[in-house]
UniProtKB/TrEMBL annotation:
Name of this protein: Carboxylic ester hydrolase
PANTHER family associated with the record: CARBOXYLIC ESTER HYDROLASE (PTHR43142)
E.C. designation(s): 3.1.1.-
Signal peptide: 1-21
Annotated source species: Panstrongylus lignarius
Domain Carboxylesterase type B intervals: 23-533
InterPro entries associated with the record: AB_hydrolase_fold, CarbesteraseB, Carboxylesterase_B_AS
Alphabetized UniProt keyword annotations: Glycoprotein, Hydrolase, Serine esterase, Signal
C-alpha cells in the first residue's frame, strides 16, 4: 500500500517543521538527500541541499569525456556541506598563491527551496532559476547564496562545471571535440528537468541565468540543440557568445602545447588524449599559466569552440550563423550590462598606477592580451590596430583620464559591443522578445574594491548587479538603506521575469523591447539608483561601428 501511495504522489518531500529545526529530507530519482535549514535576509526559513550529484565524477577514464548520469545511491546522503570547487587556476588568488585549487570530482549542485510540500500535495510548484557562475570559463565556483532572492517564492539551483583545460581542451576533431564544461551545464539542466519537482520546483518553468562566462553560457544554450526544451527563459548578465573571449582560438595548437609540456604525444589526437587522462590534474591545470603572459591575460585561453559535426556536438556552427538562420531555442531573453564592465579585468590596472604606466609604455605588446586579439591579428597588423584603438579611446573627442579611458576601452571591447550586437541580432532574426537593462548604481561596496584593492568609485563594476540578488563573498549590500532597496528592486526583476518571461521594475509598466530593425538604436531600462529607473536610448552603445571597422579577424 505504501508503494502505491508513493507512486501516486506528484513528488515526495519528507520534512517535519522548520520551527523545530528538524532536518529536511527529499527523496528523488537517485536517492534521498538530507539538507539543512537556512534563514533569508528577510527572516524566512528555507531548505538548502548542498553538494547533490548531478553527474558521475569526471575522473579517471571519464576525464575529457562528456558527462555521464549520476549514480543512484542507497540510504541518506548528507547534503549539508559545500563541496569543493572544480580544479582550477584562479585569477582571484594569483597574487598570493599558486592560484591552483579544487577537485576534479566536482559535478554537484546546490538546491534552495522556500516551500516545504507534503507528500501528495497539490500545491503549485514554484518557478526555478538555474544560475551559471562566471569566471571566463577558467575559475570560480557555485557558491552564490539564496539569502536575498529566496525572500520570494522561487527555487534556486547553483552548480559547478568543469573549467579551464579540464572543461574545454579541444583537439578540434571528434576525438576530443571540446565544450565538456558546457555539456556539464546541459547535463545539469537535464537533471533539473527530471528531479526539480521533488524539491518543489516546476520543471516547466525554468529560467537559466548567469553572469560573465555564465552569461555567455546562457547564450550558448540558446543556440545549442543539446539544450533544446530544457529551459523556458534566459537571463544574461554581462556576456554573450559574441564577446571576444567567449570563443577560444587556436584550440588544437593549445592542446599540443599542453601535451608537449606534460610529455605527451602531440600529433595523434587519441594518443594525446589517452596520455593526458593519466597526468596529474594539478600539473595539467598549471599549464594554463603558459597562455597568460601578462597578469592573467588574455582572460580565457581555454573556452568554448565550434565543434566538428558529430551527434553530440554542443555547437557546430558559429553563433552568428545560427542566429541568422533561426537555429535558436526560442525563449524570452533579458540581456544586461553595467556602466564599468571593464573593471574586469582592468580593476587591477586601474588600482595600480605602475601597471597603468606599464600598459601605456608597452601598449604594442600588452594591448592585444588585454583586449583579446593576440591570436587573431597578424604581427604585421598589430601596431596599426593598437594605434587605432588607442587613438580612439585616449585621444578622441570624449577622452577623459587615462584610467577612465582604459576602463571604457576594455569594457566596450570585452563586453558591451558583443552584448549589444547579440541582442540586436536576436531581435532582428528570432521571434522571441529581447529585453535589456543598463546598471549604473554603485553602492557602498563594489566587486572592484576587491580586485583593485581600493575604494575608488570607478562606477558600477562587472558583476555588481548580480551581487544584489545572489549573495557572494565579494560584496555585502546590507549596510545601507539604499543598497537594501536595490536588493528588492533587482529581485523584483528576477522574480517577474522567471514567472512571466517579461521583466518588471518600479513604475515602468511597459519594458521596451530591443528594436528589431538593425538600423535603429538600442532601447533599455537604465537602473541608476533605487529611486531613478527609466527608459533610455543610445545609438552607438559600445562603439560597435568602430570595432566592426577593425580587421581583428575574430571568428564569430
Amino acid at each position: 500500500m505504501k508503494e502505491v501511495v508513493l507512486q501516486l504522489a506528484v513528488f515526495i518531500i519528507l520534512y517535519t517543521n522548520y520551527g523545530n529545526c528538524e532536518t529536511p529530507l527529499v527523496k528523488y530519482n537517485y536517492g534521498t538527500v538530507r539538507g539543512k535549514s537556512m534563514t533569508t535576509f528577510g527572516g524566512r526559513s528555507i531548505a538548502a541541499f548542498l553538494g547533490v550529484p548531478y553527474a558521475s565524477p569526471p575522473v579517471g577514464n571519464n576525464r575529457f569525456e562528456p558527462p555521464k548520469d549520476a549514480e543512484r545511491f542507497d540510504g541518506e546522503r548528507d547534503a549539508t556541506e559545500k563541496v569543493e570547487d572544480c580544479l582550477q587556476y584562479s585569477q582571484a588568488t594569483y597574487k598570493t598563491s599558486s592560484g591552483i585549487y579544487g577537485n576534479e570530482d566536482c559535478l554537484y549542485a546546490n538546491i534552495y527551496t522556500p516551500k516545504i510540500l507534503k507528500e501528495g500535495s497539490s500545491e503549485k510548484l514554484l518557478d526555478v532559476v538555474v544560475y551559471i557562475h562566471g569566471g571566463v570559463f577558467m575559475f570560480t565556483y557555485a557558491h552564490y547564496g539564496p539569502k536575498y532572492l529566496l525572500d520570494q517564492d522561487i527555487v534556486l539551483v547553483t552548480f559547478n562545471y568543469r573549467l579551464g583545460p579540464l572543461g574545454f581542451l579541444s583537439t578540434e576533431d571528434d576525438i576530443l571535440p571540446g565544450n565538456n564544461g558546457l555539456k556539464d551545464q546541459t547535463k545539469l539542466l537535464e537533471w533539473v528537468n527530471k528531479n526539480i519537482k521533488y524539491f518543489g520546483g516546476n520543471p516547466d518553468s525554468v529560467t537559466i541565468a548567469g553572469t560573465s562566462a555564465g552569461s555567455s553560457s546562457v547564450h550558448f544554450h540558446m543556440i545549442s540543440p543539446l539544450s533544446k526544451g530544457l529551459f523556458h527563459k534566459a537571463f544574461s548578465m554581462s556576456g554573450t557568445t559574441l564577446i571576444p573571449w567567449a570563443q577560444a582560438e587556436n584550440a588544437r595548437e593549445k592542446a599540443e602545447r599542453v601535451a608537449a609540456e606534460l610529455n605527451c604525444p602531440t600529433e595523434n589526437s587519441l594518443e594525446m588524449k589517452n596520455c593526458l587522462k593519466n597526468v596529474d590534474g594539478i600539473k595539467l591545470v598549471a599549464t594554463s599559466k603558459k597562455f597568460m603572459p601578462w597578469l592573467y591575460l588574455p582572460l580565457a585561453p581555454f573556452g568554448p569552440v565550434i565543434e566538428v559535426k558529430h551527434d553530440q556536438a554542443f555547437i557546430s556552427e558559429s553563433p552568428i550563423n545560427n542566429i541568422k538562420k533561426g537555429h535558436v531555442n526560442e525563449v524570452p531573453w533579458l540581456v544586461t550590462m553595467t556602466s564599468s564592465e571593464g573593471l574586469y579585468p582592468a580593476a587591477d590596472i586601474a588600482g595600480d598606477p605602475s601597471l597603468m604606466r606599464h600598459l601605456e609604455e608597452n601598449k604594442d605588446e600588452l594591448l592585444p592580451f588585454l583586449l583579446d586579439y593576440n591570436y587573431t591579428v597578424t604581427s604585421e597588423k598589430i601596431k596599426e590596430i593598437n594605434s587605432k584603438i588607442w587613438n580612439k579611446y585616449f585621444y578622441g573627442e570624449k577622452a577623459g583620464s587615462d584610467v577612465s579611458n582604459m576602463l571604457k576601452m576594455a569594457g566596450d571591447r570585452l563586453f558591451v559591443e558583443g552584448i549589444v550586437k547579440a541582442a540586436k541580432l536576436h531581435a532582428q532574426y528570432t521571434k522571441s522578445p529581447v529585453y535589456s537593462y543598463y546598471f549604473t548604481y554603485r553602492g557602498k561596496n563594489s566587486i572592484s574594491d576587491t580586485f583593485s584593492n581600493s575604494k575608488i568609485d570607478f562606477g558600477a563594476s562587472h558583476g555588481d548587479d548580480t551581487s544584489y540578488v545572489l549573495q557572494n563573498k565579494y560584496l555585502n549590500p546590507e549596510e545601507t538603506k539604499s543598497d537594501i532597496k536595490m536588493i528588492k528592486l533587482l529581485s523584483q526583476i528576477w522574480i517577474t521575469f522567471a514567472s512571466t518571461g517579461k521583466p518588471q521594475v518600479g513604475n515602468i509598466t511597459n519594458w521596451p523591447l530591443v528594436c528589431r530593425k538593425s538600423s535603429e538604436g538600442f532601447y533599455y531600462v537604465h537602473i541608476e539608483s533605487p529611486e531613478s529607473v527609466y527608459v533610455e536610448y543610445q545609438n552607438n552603445l559600445g562603439h560597435g561601428q568602430f570595432w566592426d571597422s577593425l580587421e581583428i579577424g575574430q571568428v564569430l
